[in-house]
């Protein structure tokens, strides 16, 4: 019995350090878990995707890096939330977890050719939000990062976004092991229908999984030895009709 308790105590911190997004929040109103957020078929759904892993189903060079392993199998049973352009949204972690890894948060969107619940995410993606370091005077291995110990990523849908159905891809990247090629990726997809939008032209755009490369400086970065500027991955942030960049904490 004592051995069992010791093993459980040793595993618990590792499990609690991993997490998954499952809840969409619209202008402060929290929806039900997985009501509008696709689930996944990862054996332990809170485990991240890593660059360094010999298992083929855990490498980012796969279609599942768009919305997570097996997520498209849940698309048809996942609702599509109506969201007004300009709304404040958040994607919240499940089971009371918080982001206990240092690293940036990013949010991408991709317009579906028809409906979000039939879209695999193989089209173009644009970034609408990113955040990295909020206080470079704090511990760079923990509290310096904007996301540290938070249970959600909060962002605003650009008011100029054209109407239509979209996937939203929130992502948190744990960089505590990035110095050894072991960045951790936590991500999913929410399904939304944008209304009351504008005539903006989102961009620049990328495709997943090819948007990220194994040798990107973002994923080969050390948090040890004090503060240093983090090189954000992916394209510039699109905030409206024209292309712009927003690097928080730079």
TrEMBL record:
User: Could you tell me the keywords of this UniProt record?
Assistant: Carbohydrate metabolism, Cellulose degradation, Disulfide bond, Hydrolase, Polysaccharide degradation, Secreted, Signal
Residues of the signal peptide: 1-17
Q: Which ranges of the sequence are coiled-coil?
A: none
Q: What is its EC number?
A: 1.14.99.56
**Main subcellular localization, coarse class?**
secreted
Instruction: Kindly indicate whether the keyword Signal belongs to this entry.
Output: yes
Quote the CDD domains the UniProt record gives.
Answer: LPMO_AA9
Q: Name one GO cellular component term.
A: extracellular region
How does the record comment on the protein's domains? Answer: Has a modular structure: an endo-beta-1,4-glucanase catalytic module at the N-terminus, a linker rich in serines and threonines, and a C-terminal carbohydrate-binding module (CBM).
**What role does it play?**
Lytic polysaccharide monooxygenase (LMPO) that depolymerizes crystalline and amorphous polysaccharides via the oxidation of scissile alpha- or beta-(1-4)-glycosidic bonds, yielding C1 and/or C4 oxidation products. Catalysis by LPMOs requires the reduction of the active-site copper from Cu(II) to Cu(I) by a reducing agent and H(2)O(2) or O(2) as a cosubstrate.
Protein name as it appears in the record: AA9 family lytic polysaccharide monooxygenase
